[in-house]
Amino acid sequence: MSIGVVGVGNMGLAMALRLRDAGMAVAVRDIDGAREALAAQGGCTVAVDAAALAAGCELLIVAVVDAGQCDEVLLGAGGAATTLRPGQTVMLCPTIAPADTERLAAALAVRGVDVIDAPMSGGPLRARQGTMSLMLAADAALLQRWQAVLAQLSDRQFRVSERVGDGARTKLVNNLLAAANLAAAAEALALAQQVGLDAATTLGVIEQSSGQSWIGSDRLHRALACDAAAQAHLALLAKDTALALDLARAAGAAVPVGAAAAACFAGAMAAGHARDDDSVLLRWLQAQRSGNLSVNKVPGLAPAPAPPPRAG
């Protein structure tokens, strides 16, 4: 089967290479030629634009950053919709608002194109290993049709419903909790250091005790190792948390803990950390506690250089 992947950033590239390793014909498209080159080195072909990519594949996986980019690669000039044919399938993996998922699915349905609402979670390493989570909302027969691909991408598939948009809702609820867990874990470790505890020792205790969270362990180990590689940009979880708050407001639900986490991310964003790995939250909190607005001045913590902006 032929698979197209539009957007080969951290997650999209891992997915494309995973499918290529499984012997599938994979073509890619990204606005960053360097990312396309990495995919080509792994055996993928490169399409000149999203329209050409869609014309040559049976399943188009969209792994860009946000709803605006989804609109551009699907419905914009040179977008996939210009060549998509009835019977093809689009798999939407970005974290976007449920309303945007539903709107895009409706626009593609007019063209006879099926949509799988499939937000993902777990990071690029788990995506490369095929152990990430997929939150799937689509017709059961459609999911069965693409089960071979889904099984390669994820051994943790959650079929949340057949209503497109419910995958997006599930992902926003999950990411609201992820943001709260990360913010709380970073705050706790910053407090540990402030009262004279060894950060690594304290984290080891937390990981074997009731305060443990997967995202806290993953990110705080990176922070303590001064690992500056941006595996998950802070701007992404900040975006997802804001979308989750919008979802809560629309439902008339109060989420004070989530709102506090969102405020924490917004503060780090305002301090210029949008393109840093979201583990920078610990260093930002340390800077706040020490009275220094710059994390570069926090003793024992190395600064994290921001990579150049990119999308998809």
Describe the protein's topology:
Blueprint: E1 2-6, H1 10-21, E2 25-29, H2 33-41, E3 45-46, H3 50-55, E4 59-62, H4 67-75, E5 89-92, H5 98-109, E6 114-117, E7 120-121, H6 123-129, E8 133-137, H7 140-145, H8 147-153, E9 156-161, H9 166-194, H10 199-207, H11 214-224, H12 234-251, H13 256-270, H14 280-290
Parallel strand pairs: 1-2, 1-4, 2-3, 4-5, 5-6, 8-9
Antiparallel strand pairs: 7-8
Helix pairs in contact: 1-6, 4-5, 9-11, 9-12, 9-13, 9-14, 10-11, 12-13
Structure overview:
With 312 residues, this protein is an alpha/beta fold. It folds into two domains: 2-164, Rossmann fold (3-Layer(aba) Sandwich), CATH 3.40.50; 169-297, N-(1-d-carboxylethyl)-l-norvaline Dehydrogenase, domain 2 (Orthogonal Bundle), CATH 1.10.1040. It is built from 14 helices and nine strands. The strands form two sheets. Strands 3-2-1-4-5-6 form a six-stranded parallel sheet, sandwiched between helices. A three-stranded mixed sheet has the order 7-8-9. The longest helix has 29 residues, at 166-194. The radius of gyration is 20 Å and the shape is globular. Residues 293-312 have low confidence and may be disordered.
